[in-house]
Amino acid sequence: MAEYPALAIQFLDSADPFLPDRLHALLDDFEPLAIDDDEALARWRVFFRSAGQRDAASRAIAGAIAPGMLELAALSVPDEDWARRSQESLRAIVAGGLIIAPPWDVPKAEGKKQKADLPVIVIEPSMGFGTGHHETTRLCLVLMQRLDLRGARVLDVGTGSGVLALAAWKLGAGDVVAIDTDPDALDNARANIARNGAGPAIDIVRDDLGALRIQRGAVVLANLTGAVLVRYAEELRGLVVDGGYLILSGFAPLDAAVIRAAFHGCRVISEQTDGQWAALCLQV
Q1: What is the domain class of 128-283 according to CATH?
Q2: Is the distance from CB of 199 to CB of 176 less than 8 angstroms?
Q3: What Cα–Cα distance (Å) separates residue 155 from each residue in 25, 178, 212, 238, 261?
Q4: Which residues neighbour 88 within 8 Å (Cβ) at sequence distance 6 or greater?
């Protein structure tokens, strides 16, 4: 069974209301895969691609946050533990006019009748980030539904579980490409795409954003991290046709100005926040 390096962060002092935002900003530089936030226990588990990234993130946090505010511990977490068992209580959610559901809570016609009338995307929780329950995914789903995707070419950069690519297909996109560098994420995306019957409609590409050479899209989705969005702003903008749209998320509201500056020259169409997260829709 695969294991993933993680950092356990225990909050010891709640006096600083901006501490979570500061942590998100610090973690951005180390490209975390996901953050499991246990509000009841005031504890995060942050997952990384490598132990090196985890350990570097731990050193950065220890050097930037005052002693006594946090307790840090390095972990190696089995995939089954965090990606499936910890999410087995997930239930279907509504995001605008779409339902995102795990396989065990797909709405039935005879019950939840009002919900069952909406398009449903079934996502199996796994290593691929994006069950639809995280705020950044929901923000992207809402912003997507404000655009007319019918017949459009849509690129989903950092597709994770494939949920945004599937949403674009459900919303009528004519050509959808799901892109990621992580083979585990792409395996999950491929399974979810097949599960939803979208295999013939969505292409899957494994490539690094810095080296990606692909036909431009009318809409580009990038639910990544603030650090990655800033680092690859020119590459992301170059993936969009003139007059097309970028939907960006994965950053804190306090970082929205930095993201807007990185994409200078793009027009802000919409800016949304949900708790400690934000998203932007930009026109190129």
Answers
A1: alpha beta
A2: no
A3: 26, 6, 12, 12, 22
A4: 104, 125
3-state SS, residue 200: coil
Alpha carbon distance 94, 119 (integer Å): 10
Q: What topology does CATH give the domain 3-85?
A: Alpha-Beta Plaits (3.30.70)
Three-class secondary structure of residue 173 per DSSP: coil
Q: What is the pTM of this model?
A: 0.79
The Cα–Cα gap between 84 and 185 comes to 14
Tokens of 202: 């969505």
The pLDDT of residue 115 is: 55
Which residue bears the tokens 């020119």? 234
Tokens matching residue 1: 């069974």
Q: Please name the residues in contact with 248: beta carbons below 8 A apart, sequence gap of 6 or more.
A: 222, 223, 224, 229, 236, 259, 263, 279, 280, 281, 282
Instruction: List the Cα angle 128/191/227 in 5-degree steps.
Output: 25
Residues 229, 127: Cα–Cα separation, whole Å: 21
Residues of the chain where predicted confidence (pLDDT) is lower than 50: 112-114, 128
Close Cβ partners of 114 (under 8 Å, ≥ 6 residues apart): none
DSSP assignment, residue 83? Answer: I
Query: Which residues of the chain does CATH 3.40.50.150 include?
Result: 128-283
> Given this model, what pLDDT does residue 172 score?
96
How far is 240 from 237, CA to CA, in rounded Å? 6
